[in-house]
Amino acid sequence: MLVSRAYLRDERLSGRDEWPYNVPAVRTLGGSGLAFSRPVTFLVGENGSGKSTVVEAIAEAYGLDARGGRAGRKYVNDRPLMHRLGRSGAQVVCATHSPVLAATPDADIVELGDDGLRRTSWDQLELVYHWRRYLDDPRAYLRHVVDPPR
């Protein structure tokens, strides 16, 4: 593993009450941190849960462009996809809302939420639950728009 653990170097930072230190996932990095044991790790959670913040912090800690600039682009791969990269010796840490990406074989899945970070399986993700419900009955999720008066 290129990156074996992500953590805040100075634990006092995790007690600060401003962004990004008040995001539960970042607070967890100030405590136990996040260990990486598989070549492909997906960070999954709602908007604002800290997925991108954690990925960007890891990238910056290793001297990569956190915005996906030149250093990140050299690893772009248009072949069927994350699983092959992991098997080739690369390490992928990806923030996503996609249940399709999160289903990558042998991937580690970490869900970010109000309680910080927790490892989970694909079938236990809130994201998968909501997509299943949506696909079963899209009307339950869509608001009906009333035609405006003419």
Structure report:
This protein is α/β, with parallel strands linked by helices. It has a single domain, classed as 3-Layer(aba) Sandwich (Rossmann fold). It is built from 6 helices and 6 strands. Strands 4-3-5-6 form a 4-stranded mixed beta sheet. Strands 1-2 form a two-stranded antiparallel ribbon. A hairpin with a 2-residue loop joins β5 (108-113) and β6 (116-120). The longest helix is centred in the middle third of the chain and has 11 residues, at 51-61. The radius of gyration is 18 Å and the shape is globular.
In summary, what is this structure?
With 150 residues, the protein is α/β, with parallel strands linked by helices. The protein has helices at 24-30, 51-61, 70-73, 82-87, 99-102, 126-136; strands at 5-6, 34-35, 40-45, 92-96, 108-113, 116-120.
Q: Could you tell me the mean pLDDT? A: 84
Q: Please report the total strand number as a whole number.
A: 6
Level-2 CATH architecture: 3-Layer(aba) Sandwich
Number of domains: 1
Give the overall shape, derived from the CA principal axes: globular
Per DSSP, what share of the residues sits in E-state strands of 2 or more residues?
15-25%
The CATH topology label is Rossmann fold
Helix residue percentage: 25-40%
Structural class label: alpha/beta
Strand adjacency order, main sheet:
4-3-5-6
Low-confidence stretches: 69-74
Beginning-to-end CA distance, first to last residue:
63 Å
Order of helices and strands: EHEEHHHEHEEH
Q: What's the CATH first level?
A: Alpha Beta
Sketch the major β-sheet. 4 strands, mixed
Calculate Rg over CA atoms: 18 Å
Structure annotation, total helices:
6
